[in-house]
Amino acid sequence: MNDKTLVEEWLKKAEQDLKSAEYLLNMDPAPIEIVCYHCQQSAEKMLKGFLTAHGVFPEKTHDLLQLCEHCEELDNRFEQFVNSCVELSPYGVQIRYPSTIELDENDMYRAIDEARCICAFVLNDFCELFGESESEEQRQEM
User: Fold this and answer.
1) Is the pLDDT of residue 133 over 80?
2) Residue-level pLDDT at 2
3) Helix (H, G, I), strand (E, B) or coil at 28
4) 68 near 117, Cβ under 8 Å?
5) How far apart are CA 54 and CA 129, in angstroms?
6) How far apart are CA 52 and CA 33, in angstroms?
């Protein structure tokens, strides 16, 4: 698998996680913890895809802040996502098990917005880096 193919795999999986989170919003009641989990997973995979696209093998971690800091070393514009990563990080592990984290719909919609912003930024970078106008998922939707 070449670097571009590996990056595309990261981004495809990230887009699938975000689409899953958005789909789950239609449930009544929406499974808040699961939506937040998919948002964290989407952001994590996008950050790992960005690192891979720039020749950095990402660590095996769910810590979005750590990943974001590595991305920021390559592109200081990632500073804008630090707070999002701090907020999304606990959703990767802590909410999958019984915990004291209490989430509400506001948390869920904020997680969706944060994941969307990270995805849009990384997808734009991917398109610039590889000279493509849109992602694989966007091409398949047409």
Assistant:
1) no
2) 64
3) coil
4) no
5) 9
6) 28
Q: How many CA atoms lie within 13 A of 12 on its CB side?
A: 11
47 φ, ψ to 5°?
-65, -40
- Domain of 66 in residue numbering reads as 3-116
- Both tokens of 27, joined, read 């449930």
CB 141 within 8 A of CB 19: no
124 in any annotated domain:
no
70 alpha carbon, distance to own chain's centre: 15
63's tokens:
């810590």
Which amino acid belongs to residue 80?
A: Q
Task: Supply the pLDDT for residue 139.
Answer: 40
Tokens of 54: 């720039």
Output the six-digit token pair for 81. Answer: 């996502």
Q: How high is the pLDDT of residue 141?
A: 46
**Domain of residue 47, CATH code:** 1.20.120.330
